[in-house]
């Protein structure tokens, strides 16, 4: 089959990172195509659910600097879309302050906030209970409240990015599956189940499916996929509300023992709140294994914790579902972001993003990927995140 169309940039994956890349690319005059194997706005992979946590704080200073850089880009996106996307309900981290988790470490994060002059309030267990309605917390629990944190409107963000990409002339192809990539010195040929295209540069932003396309080229990213439970609970007290909260606890033999929760969504008429465990257990072999049915034990573990510590919530689930978490095998890495140079022949024409809790970086990641595609470099420090950086096991 001959090449049907040529583009400056082809983006594989029409989720938040793919659409952010497309919106940024067309704004910079790039002829752009997005190929999404499912329909747009699907929730088959990692974009499920109505909200995501917005936070500034990170234990790793380079990632903290990236969230600070992302904040004005979110504000710009909100201005262009004429809708509010980030709602500052605050971000509460508490628990064992020195336990090292996949979310970070409370004590180290506070030190980085001090260094970067980011405001927060340090709280002890009794003050957390008094302010936010928790009870019977272990006496040694401490933590902080960061008032700029909160929640991101996921579906509103997707709609805004899609609209900007479409208005800029981006070709948006849903239900078109990429079968093969053929990188060459002059760009990348992309073969799909509907046609063949040429892109001067190609961005892979297809999440947990990225190795399906990298594998035939002789490369593979170290990623792990987990199906994590989402649980919606009813408030017993209609006046009760919460910031986003995350409890840091020592792991058990069975799981990481980490839980989080949102307050009531400011944009939603629903009175329910969403919570979840963050258990990195039983990795999937691929995205096709997602069932949409949470592990009953994980739901029970969350309900048990809520029953002991959150009297304002009825621990009996109203709704349950799952989300697909695509995470790096090396938890210190956080993301795979950058050029495939050194991974595959002519990899300089292939840009990659995969894995990690990346929604808070959506407008920044789109800008970085377009910087790399158009200019060959970016002003943002992503050196540690490069896919060509050796994995922990290889160092």
Radius of gyration using CA atoms only = 21 Å
Total number of helical segments? 8
Q: Which oligomeric state applies?
A: single chain
CATH superfamily of the largest domain: FAD/NAD(P)-binding domain
CATH topology of the largest domain: FAD/NAD(P)-binding domain
CATH architecture of the largest domain: 3-Layer(bba) Sandwich
Amount of beta strand:
25-35%
Major β-sheet profile: 8 strands, mixed
Series of H and E elements: EHEEHEEHEHEEHEEEEHEEEEHEEEH
How many domains?
2
What's this, in brief?
The chain has 395 residues and is of the alpha+beta class.
Describe the structure.
- The protein has 395 residues and is of the alpha+beta class.
- It folds into two domains: 5-48 and 155-221 and 331-394, FAD/NAD(P)-binding domain, CATH 3.50.50.60; 91-147 and 223-328, D-Amino Acid Oxidase, subunit A, domain 2 (D-Amino Acid Oxidase, Chain A, domain 2, 2-Layer Sandwich), CATH 3.30.9.10.
- The protein is 25% helix and 28% strand.
- The chain is built from eight helices and 19 strands.
- The strands form three sheets. Strands 1, 2, 9, 10, 11, 12, 18 and 19 form an eight-stranded mixed sheet that branches.
- Strand 11 and strand 12 form a beta hairpin.
- The chain starts with a strand and ends in a 21-residue tail after the last helix.
Please supply descriptive tags for the structure shown above:
about 400 residues; alpha+beta; FAD/NAD(P)-binding domain; D-Amino Acid Oxidase, Chain A, domain 2; 2 domains; eight-stranded mixed sheet; 8 helices; about 30% strand; globular; disordered C terminus; flavoprotein; MTOX; FAD-dependent oxidoreductase; FAD; flavin adenine dinucleotide binding
